[in-house]
Description:
The protein has 394 residues and is of the alpha+beta class.
Amino acid sequence: xxxxxxxxxxxxxxxxxxxxxxxxxxxxEKTSKDIREAKQKQQQLVEENKRLExxxxxxxxxxxxxxxKVQDAENSxxxxxxKLRILNEQLNEKTKALTTRKKDLDALVQAAVRLSRxxxxxxxxxPGEAHQTMIAADVLKMTSxxxxxxxxxxxxxxxxxxxxxxxxxxxxxxxxxxxxxxSNTRIKLQTEVAERKALLEKLGREQEEQxxxxxxxxxxxxxxxxxxxxxAKEEEAEKAAAKSGVLLKPEDPPAKGKRGxxxxxxxxxxxxxxxxxxxxxxxxxxxxxxxxxxxVVIATRPQAQVTAAFDGEVVFSGxxxxxxxxxxxxxxxxxxxxxxGLAKIDVxxxxxLLEGEPIGAMGSGGAxxxxxxxxxxxxxxxxxxxxxxxxxxx
Length: 394
């Protein structure tokens, strides 16, 4: 009983014992430890961002190569299809010509048969002069010779037709091979585009605030010129903020291709890759429906890949008035490029792109396969033809 009472009293004493506050030395050590852990985490984040940046740089280079392969495959497939179309036209013409020749041959054969059924003595006894009888015999001889020549000609045409059919079959096979290659290359490219998107999300580079602000400008703008002017004002505000040192937050990771490191647009005149594979159907300055083209219109293949014309920053991405889905890139030296009429966009405001990096794709067919491309200097449209490599005014 005494032992039990003693245990109870001891427990009460322990419960009632005061909790002593940490000493200043202990507080200091705890704070120091927290700071070390925070710095370690910060360093880990910096290293992770560097790793992601390096990964993004490699991915962008791969994207440029993959997009170029897609566009080359699109051009190649279009060439094969043109060749096949021409061969089919020639095949149809040869077939029609051969059918006509066969009809002519049938007529000659029937004439020869009729003459051959007339006995020679009957020809001699035919009323008329002797020279008319000789003419009739010559006609029969000429008819036989004509039949022989016609047969030789038809045989030659049939051989040519068979060769042409072989070329058509080979060309169709090549078209099928090119279509498969294009499909596989597109799948690879889309995988890399999705990888780029995931990397950018990790780096926190999508800049939702900026995108929302630009979307608001687009709603207010009555036309493209007004939108471009609004974007130019935003750019001036950004430059002013950058000079004052308040543009970037301390925690913002450094973005690849910042404005200062982009290549000079002015020095690339005549070397810029066209943004899409296709055929120019409207030129700069052409009049359409009482309006003058401020850019060029390119007819493309279904789902054609669209790429950045040059290194730049995405300053607009989305639908705008009757332009459809549109992407505007800002380049060095006060240049902008605009691509409109896309069915799909794969970039967002604030992204920095390399020349040839994918920005989206065209539609599946019909009138949707028209890309409107515009080049601006100091916010004024200029003819892009002298700037584009291999540009053909067709």
